[in-house]
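Can't paste images in this forum, so I'm doing it all in text. The chain is below; anyone willing to post the predicted structure tokens underneath?
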Amino acid sequence: MNSTKKTARIAGALYLLSGVTAGVPLIYVPSTLIVDGNAAATANNILASEKLFRVAMVSELIGGILLIFLVRLLYRLLNGVDKTQASLMVTLVLISVPITFLNVLNEIAALTLMRGAGFLSVFAKPQRDALAMLFLGFHGDGVSLANIFWGLWLFPFGVLVMRSGFFPRILGVLLIINCFALVVVSLTSLLLPSYEDLVNRFAIIPELGELWMMAWLLIKGAKDQPLVAPA
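Text version of the structure:
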């Protein structure tokens, strides 16, 4: 048996590592290397920072792997509260991970086109750059798809936190609000892309729910009590 406090703090550390390794590349690469509407400039930026681009790809994959270990630990911590909700939480996370891995293939395809391997010599450089930009766009759309499940898993997680008795109920409420914010942003990017920036501005505050939960896990852990491993 381990205590809930120890397990919660380990979960908090994994939560932070997963968020940083998966989230930073998704913010840094589009904001620094990708130039909207300019395939040539984007290709030049990425080729000039190719190692950094590759590190970002690997970082996305590591973030997905860490998320698996995180949700496994959270299941161990919370399955005694409600096994059905805990199982749903795990299922939704596990659906998101293959999407993340397959989505990185779009970045690999883009980089292959930019580097212009011998078999791509039939395409002129502007054509390769344009195709690479297309795959980078697919990667962005893939993030929106994965983001739906990154939001949905927070609903059963929030319910479990509210019912657990060893976390403040407000953290569960914030997680559920965060869930709806992420799902709305993702669906807006797919259905009404012209409103995506507007919705993103309103969703910034609701999307902080995970950060509060992460901070609580790291700093406070959970009310200490024996934790029996599930059968």
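The chain has one domain: 2-224. The chain has a mean pLDDT of 91.
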